[in-house]
């Protein structure tokens, strides 16, 4: 049996289900309308589940240990911070993500958040809905400096689009090797994170949340940024120290922040950061487009079949 947890998988499930059924797999769908809890995954997996197509539902060590028949995990998406990769390897469970399937969608959303912050679009448009006509002054992105932190699949798509807008783009990524990309798209590379933080008008995060990167944007990092700077985070909430970001926004240490991700999704009622006018939050929709969802459904299914065939 195969357990499929992501809600949006259903939109494109026919072809994917057919591929699995042709190979004799029976499908268990998550019909809860939300991500599954650890216990719900454990319970579902007791029924001879050999493969899971997983969204952002939790797969820590204790869950993996109790999924006795599990042989392969296929990530419906890219970020694998919800899976204990080390324990999976120890248990002989194969894991693969759907590399590159949602890069364009997330990159477009990051660019959208840059424009939204530069013109304060959410607040202004909401004002007109209540028949106001407030014209807050904004600024252009053209000729501004963009610091892309993490130059992988998504970071590169963001860089390309930002160059197209006329921004000056610098990538910070200690593991970056694609020098031909830099030349082709007229993108700079900087080896010091502090320099990128200091010089950029906009900082956009495109790196995974790991033990090394959690809290990368903390009080110290925010202090280095320009008072006019905007922080964009479409990667993971854990990358940003939200208490420090609140202080930085309230004290005009930076101008604005826009995120698609948060430490708690959805945020807790009354969260003071969420209420700030210079903070934009969207509900983790970076990869949630028809095109990306279809690619993620197909590639995660093919990846799972491939792993189970081994
Ligand atoms: P990727 O693996 O292609 O790229 C990640 C890059 O980050 C790599 O080039 C890596 O070298 C770099 N990196 C690692 N540690 C770093 C560090 N300390 N400093 C700077 N760079 C570092 O992944 P991707 O497809 O570009 O995705 C990036 C992240 O975006 C994912 O890990 C995920 O968390 C997030 N994401 C969010 C959404 C969404 O819906 N908002 C969707 C997909 C992915």
TrEMBL record:
- Output the superkingdom of the source species: Bacteria
Q: Which organism is it from?
A: Paenibacillus residui
One family from Pfam that matches here is 2-Hacid_dh_C
| Signal sequence bounds | none
As recorded in UniProt, coiled-coil segments are: none
Q: Which family does it belong to?
A: Belongs to the D-isomer specific 2-hydroxyacid dehydrogenase family.
Q: Which SUPFAM superfamilies match?
A: Formate/glycerate dehydrogenase catalytic domain-like (SSF52283), NAD(P)-binding Rossmann-fold domains (SSF51735)
Q: Where is the D-isomer specific 2-hydroxyacid dehydrogenase catalytic domain?
A: 10-310
Q: Which UniProt keywords apply?
A: Amino-acid biosynthesis, NAD, Oxidoreductase
Q: Which residues form the D-isomer specific 2-hydroxyacid dehydrogenase NAD-binding domain?
A: 111-286
Name the UniProt record assigns to this protein: Phosphoglycerate dehydrogenase
Show the InterPro entries listed in the entry: D-2-hydroxyacid_DH, D-isomer_2_OHA_DH_cat_dom, D-isomer_DH_CS, D-isomer_DH_CS1, D-isomer_DH_NAD-bd, NAD(P)-bd_dom_sf
